[in-house]
């Protein structure tokens, strides 16, 4: 027994020495430092993977879901006609930064945001200069081409009600005019009279336009260029009609915008269409198309302020104070024997039809299957290309695919019969167009179902 106790004494001694060493203040400090480093390591991993990584992963998952469920056509590859007027990524970043700077600004209150008022005024002045407006020229900024056109129609309705006492206003426009004129007619109770175009030039028939003008006509209109075929109407002849009857003439340059004013300087064929034409009293120009401004942005211009004042909405007895508001708060085809260009387009829009033996809508469906987004037209059946900066880079490929599509249909006419041909063929065969309109309205209803 005594011998075993004697043997344990050295062990106890070393245990005591060990505890003494382990509890030495410097070693305790070292242990605490190591503990903190280990804690920091695992806290960092926890923070990165759970507290930060979780939301980041959720953000990436949301982004991937949006990309998956909110797909769009290949507009970056230049395969979409019109629609996207993209001036490059650098410009997009600039637009985003400008929007961030002025996101809270309210142009309705120029006394609070005088800088916004100045920017709008300068934008209007620049576009007036582009369109050779006289010194009396004036205008306002709107939310887009539709609003610019609607405002012009409202202006002439109110002006000639005041100046001529016209209570049942009418406007006479080409059948190819933008649908915004139809919208304005519905909004403001203006009778819309449409005039056919020349079957060769696709410009509005001036003789029939003249015959359609009555004592109730408050305005006529023309395009430079129109949406369907990219054709410019004879604005000079329309100006003569407007002067003869003392009525307004609106020129829709929403699509021609920043292309038409520069054709002459660039050495391309053009015609007179701006304020140099006597009789032109207003012009609309979209700055968010070939001007590359952010959507939506457009300018409505008038020859003189005494016309523009009828655009304004004024209320002097509103309980919220005196209310005044200026507006509403909205490459050529190579020789392909089976196809032909509609008219003689001079701007950024080209439309083309086909021989009677080929359905042009089948050509469109073939192009769609090759990744192109082309607009179908009717009366007459045709396809429409609105050339953008992105489109120019893919023009050669488009011509190749267009030829290949036509060749496919020549080799096998039955390979057509796609969806577009069915839709427009059926629509053309229905005499009661209200049925087609009901179907279109139902389609819009479906668009707003989440």
From TrEMBL:
Cofactor or coenzyme needed: pyridoxal 5'-phosphate
InterPro entries: GrpII_AminoAcid_Decarb, PyrdxlP-dep_de-COase, PyrdxlP-dep_Trfase, PyrdxlP-dep_Trfase_major
Family from the record: Belongs to the group II decarboxylase family. Sphingosine-1-phosphate lyase subfamily.
Lineage: Eukaryota, Fungi, Fungi incertae sedis, Mucoromycota, Mucoromycotina
Keywords, in A-Z order: Endoplasmic reticulum, Lipid metabolism, Lyase, Membrane, Pyridoxal phosphate, Sphingolipid metabolism, Transmembrane, Transmembrane helix
Top-level taxon in the UniProt lineage: Eukaryota
EC number of the protein: 4.1.2.27
List of residues that carry N6-(pyridoxal phosphate)lysine: 289
Enzyme class: lyase
Protein known as: sphinganine-1-phosphate aldolase
Native source organism of the sequence: Absidia glauca
Membrane topology: Single-pass membrane protein
Subcellular location: Endoplasmic reticulum membrane
KW Plastid (keyword) present: no
One MF annotation (Gene Ontology) recorded for this entry: sphinganine-1-phosphate aldolase activity
Gene3D superfamilies referenced in this protein's UniProt entry, alphabetically: 6.10.140.2150, Type I PLP-dependent aspartate aminotransferase-like (Major domain)
A Gene Ontology BP annotation from the UniProt entry: sphingolipid catabolic process
A single GO cellular-component term on record: endoplasmic reticulum membrane
Pathway recorded for this protein: Lipid metabolism; sphingolipid metabolism; Sphingolipid metabolism
